Amino acid sequence: MSAAPEHAPTMAQATLPERIGPYMPVLLVPLLALAGFIAIMNPASWLTLTVSGLAMGMMIFIMASGLTLVFGLMDVINFGHGAFVSVGAFVGISVLMLLGHMTEAPSLILNLSAVLLAVIGAMLATGAMGWAFEKVIVAPVYGHHLKQILVTMGGLIVVEQLIIVLWGPEEIYFNRPEALKGAITFAGAAIEKYRLVAVAVGLAVFAAMRWVLRQTKIGLIVRAGVENGEMVQALGYRLKLVFVGVFIAGSALAGLGGVMWALYQEVITAHMGNHAMILIFIVVIIGGLGSVEGCFIGALLVGLMQNYIAFIEPKAALISNIALMVTILMWRPMGMIPVVKAK
Amino acid sequence: MIRTVLSGDTPRSLPLALILGGILLCLALAPFLFPGVRTVDTAARICIFIVLVASYDLLLGYGGIVSFAHTMFFGIGAYGVALTSVHMGRGFDAIAIGALAGAGLAATLALLIGLFSLRVRAIFFAMITLAVASAVAVLVSQLSGLTGGEDGLTFKTPRELGPAFKFGKETFDGKLLGVKLNGKLLAYYFVFIGATLLFLALLRVVNSPFGRVLQAIRENDFRAESIGYRVVYYRVAATCLSAAIAALAGSLYAVWLRYVGPDTVLSMELMIDILLMVVIGGMGTLYGAMIGATLFVLAQNYLQNLMGAASHLLEGLPLLPELLSADRWLLWLGVLFILSVYFFPTGVVGRLREKA
């Protein structure tokens, strides 16, 4: 009997880049913050900029998350998503102005409940509008990208014009509620209160979305639908219904984002949604169409990048986002966290 | 003869042929048929927009690619002529160099954007062009040292294209059919001939084997790739070509206006106008561009007055006057746009051809 052949399996450890690879998108955010720190060389301004960058990123994420989910689930690209942002902002701010006595009162609870009412009003309005938009504008053009882009763009034009009819063509300036005005000083850096609120809300929305998507039955169906819609339908789920639900939720989130964006800028115009769309698209492309996590990371990257660059070289701020997008697409042509189904 | 000039792509419908002939005739004789500063200006605008919209149709209707950067290319051409005219002094050499440089730059930029986005997925292109175009528009208004910022640039075109230049004094007594023979007339025909040549060139392109492949890709890109055509190559080439022609149209616009500014050549509103013109006229046929641009520019100039009048009539009623006010005409065009994408995706031209 001969001896067993020499057998010496080698357990080569994966190289460092191989192990880091999957986490690279997540690591990009702290890396960018670090790069910003080195470039700015001033802890106080760095902290201010980082917080405002994160706040901006969170708001963009809230606005963009609906768009990316809708694309992932139904392969529908909605160029009219910006309309929900505008409508959300106008409805929300109108509610806030109606509640003037509550926003001007120096009481935190009254202020916050006014904002909450405004947010609820805006989300109801945009959610209902999302439902109508899906029924009237998007439903007839499923599976046809070219027509989707054209028709939703047309929808955006009509909604923008209707806003002008209802609220007038002028920009509307307003003041934030008392409790959200001013800044707190932390480690020598002035941080606006509202930005902290925006970061908190953004994190809460992200956590809630992740929870719904990962832990609930609905989330399971949505994720499975993104992966392979036909299979989910074959198993007896009415994906169309789920899709309408996601569309409404995404529109309502865009409305929430609109209110927050409006409170951040303290001015609203009918075209604000259209302007926000530019950042939203960059974020969605960077993140990988259809991926909520990618969208979150992308939004934070864009927010931080924009704030750092605006501090270092103001004129380059807008180009910096394009440059970021180009770099990331060179690295991962489908976006940071590509979703399987997306074609 | 006509068949050769039109590259074998005849209107194929009597009403369509009559309408197109009418448009051509009106544009060719505009300064004599409708003398007046405003009407001639409208005619020149129509000529330029026909080319611009036709070049967009090469992309959208033939290639099936949606771009939101078409005004950017248009603007590059316009700014090219403006910058050379400002820095080199008035002259045809400045116009030629500016136009060529603008077209070259536009094509290069289109190549870069196209390589970036089209190799992955065609719908990336729509989003990326939107982002890039808005960034460029902001950049142009910020770099006021070079581009004049929000105010734009005013410049001089060659003396021969200005109203101060008079000719034909001896033979015609300075007048022909009651129209003064001056540089403005020459400028109009400069624009008209330039636009005609560009339009015929585009017609040649879409009726060439290249255009045929583009249409095949639009219908089924997977199949086109399987047959052996490099889809990316064709799409990028179409993008570059359409960008270059848009830039040349921009140069014509700059020569006509003798002014460029972000609002006139780069704005998002202009991009939406182009989209409306293509869809209303009819995607996938260049004659659609002719009809769409003519209808739209006429509507822009004259329908607004009509709507204003209607709004006055309804004064006192709730909401209706605001809905009908002249500033809200984009609302109705938006509705028309959505309806035409649903019900007449082939536009006016497609309808007329169906009947034939």
Describe the structure in your own words.
- The complex is a heterodimer of chains A (343) and B (356).
- Chain A has 343 residues and is mainly alpha-helical.
- Chain A is 73% helix and 3% strand.
- Chain A is built from 14 helices and four strands.
- In chain A, the strands form two sheets. Chain A has a two-stranded antiparallel sheet with strand order 1-4.
- The longest helix of chain A has 32 residues, at 43-74.
- In chain B, the strands form two sheets. A two-stranded antiparallel ribbon of chain B has the order 1-4. A two-stranded antiparallel ribbon of chain B has the order 2-3.
- Helix content of chain B is 75%, strand content 2%.
- Chain B contains 19 helices and four strands.
- Chain B has one domain (2-355): ABC transporter involved in vitamin B12 uptake, BtuC (Orthogonal Bundle), CATH 1.10.3470.
- With 356 residues, chain B is mainly α.
Biggest interface, which chains?
A: A-B, 41 and 42 residues
The total tally of domains of chain A equals 1
Gap from first CA to last CA of chain B? 23 Å
The overall pLDDT average of chain A reads: 86
| Helix percent band of chain B | over 70%
Quote the CATH topology of chain A: ABC transporter involved in vitamin B12 uptake, BtuC
Structural class of chain B: mainly alpha
CATH class type of chain B: Mainly Alpha
Q: What's the alpha carbon Rg of chain A, rounded to whole Å?
A: 22 Å
> Globular, elongated, flat, extended or rod-shaped: what is the shape of chain B?
globular
How far is the first residue's CA from the last residue's CA of chain A? Answer: 58 Å
CATH class (first level) name of chain A: Mainly Alpha
Integer count of domains of chain B? 1
> Uncertain segments of chain A of ≥5 residues (pLDDT<50)?
none
What Rg of chain B is obtained from the alpha carbons, in whole angstroms? 21 Å
**What's the number of extended β-strand segments of chain B?**
4
What is the total tally of β strands of chain A?
4
Q: Which class of secondary structure composition applies to the elements of chain A?
A: mainly alpha
Q: Secondary-structure element order of chain A, as H and E?
A: HHHHHHHEEEHHHHEHHH
* Shape type of chain A: globular
Give the second-level CATH assignment, the architecture of chain A. Answer: Orthogonal Bundle
